[in-house]
Every structure is written in structure tokens, then in C-alpha cells.
Specification:
alpha/beta, Rossmann fold, 2 domains, 235 residues
Length: 235
């Protein structure tokens, strides 16, 4: 669990939203790729937009990078003009060998992380990243599992294994709490929602967010805009 992770942080240009300073500080131990995606109207060819806007876009992206570098973060930048934002993020993550993608949000502190776990899929990468994040920030963590019948291991065993790995990485066991729930996943997350500052999600399959949040994710995220780290699946 001593891997240094490579993180992709996408920004929508122009006039990108800032990443809160407290969140930038958590990334000092990681390699970070800053992706500036300049969204284009359907009728605008990327080559035309690049000729017209590349100078201003590059200046804005360099200013963003400077704020990260001032916090001690090692950064690389990529600037892309295009229409398909999600496809661009996935493509650049592959090209730059990024195993974590950050969706920035509002954060005044990084004191409590929330980590839903789905079985053993992507387990090693998720726990490796969570361990590095907790060591860097001193935050506490809530490990969450739904106790799915399809799991090869019981939910209690999965959460215990996750706890052991974090403790082995140097996280104080007093900073780790565990929640195992049955069918009412959405209500359980809603009840926990006010207690965390950021999410760490594992990318396992396209239905991940629906499985974690249920059919009405707005109930979970209403009134908050927490940052989310998505740990990509190597498979």
C-alpha cells in the first residue's frame, strides 16, 4: 500500500471552478495531471477553436497549475478542445496512466472520508489510495458495504480486511469506522451524508453509482457538493 498514485483532475474551460486549497494540499504526495477541457459548440471544429482560444486557455491552465505547484504538488498539464467531455476524461486518464480521477467540490476541511466498497472488485487499488489519502491528511474514514448476496466473502469479512489493510498502512484503528447494511442502501447513505467531507468511489462497472446511491441520488447529495475521488479499475 505504498504506491504513489497518479491523479487526473479535469477542469472545464474557460472560467474553471477552483479546487479548494484544503483539497489541493491533500495531493502533495501524488502525481497530478491537470486536464483543461475546453468545451465547444457542436458546429465548431476543434482546430478553429484552438486557433482562436488556445492562448487564453493555456494561460488559464498554467495559472491553475501554478496554484498546485505552490502547494508542493507535482503536476503535468493537458489541454484538449472538444465536445465529448466524459470520453476525453477517460481517454486522457488512460494515456496518462492515471489510476484516480478527482471530481472537485466544495470542501472547508478534509476530516472525514466516506468509502463505499463493492465486494472485492478493485479492492487493492481502492484501499491503497485510501491509505495514502488518510496518511496525508490525518482524516478519519467510514468504510461502507451493502452486504450483497453475490459477494464471495461476507460483508463483515470484507470490511475487516479493509480495516486491516489501512492499519497496516499506518492508519490508527481509532480513525476507522465500519457500516454494513442490508437492502436500504440509499437511506443508509443519506443518514451518513452529513458526516463526511469527501467520497472515495471504486470504478467497478457502469452501474456503480446507481448501485451505491440507489435510484434517487439527489436525495443523497442534496445541499452538498462533496469532492469525489474515483479509483479506476485496472481490469
Amino acid at each position: 500500500m505504498s504506491v504513489t498514485h497518479r491523479l487526473l483532475v479535469p477542469f472545464e474551460l474557460p472560467d474553471a471552478d477552483e479546487v479548494p486549497p484544503v483539497l489541493v494540499d491533500t495531493l502533495a504526495t501524488m502525481e497530478v495531471v491537470l486536464l483543461g477541457h475546453y468545451g465547444l459548440p457542436e458546429q465548431t471544429p476543434p482546430s478553429v477553436a484552438r486557433d482562436q482560444f488556445e492562448g487564453d486557455a493555456r494561460t488559464e491552465l498554467d495559472d491553475i497549475a501554478r496554484r498546485f505547484e505552490e502547494a508542493g504538488v507535482s503536476v503535468t498539464t493537458r489541454l484538449v478542445f472538444g465536445k465529448a467531455r466524459e470520453e476525453t476524461i477517460n481517454r486522457v486518464a488512460l494515456e496518462e496512466d492515471c489510476d484516480v480521477i478527482l471530481t472537485p467540490g466544495d470542501a472547508d476541511a478534509v476530516a472525514q472520508a466516506f468509502v463505499p466498497l463493492r465486494g472485492e472488485a478493485n479492492f487493492d487499488r481502492i484501499l491503497s489510495f485510501v491509505g495514502e489519502l488518510l496518511i496525508a491528511t490525518g482524516a478519519s474514514v467510514t468504510l461502507f458495504h451493502t452486504g450483497e448476496e453475490s459477494d464471495r466473502l461476507p460483508g463483515e469479512e470484507i470490511l475487516a480486511d479493509a480495516t486491516d489493510r489501512l492499519v497496516g498502512a499506518g492508519v490508527d484503528p481509532d480513525r476507522i469506522s465500519r457500516h454494513l447494511v442490508g437492502d436500504d442502501v440509499e437511506r443508509s447513505i443519506v443518514n451518513l451524508g452529513d458526516t463526511f467531507d469527501l467520497l472515495v468511489l471504486g470504478e467497478t462497472e457502469p452501474s456503480l453509482r446507481n448501485k451505491i446511491f440507489g435510484s434517487r441520488p439527489a436525495q443523497v447529495t442534496a445541499g452538498t457538493d462533496d469532492p469525489a475521488f474515483v479509483v479506476r479499475n485496472a481490469e
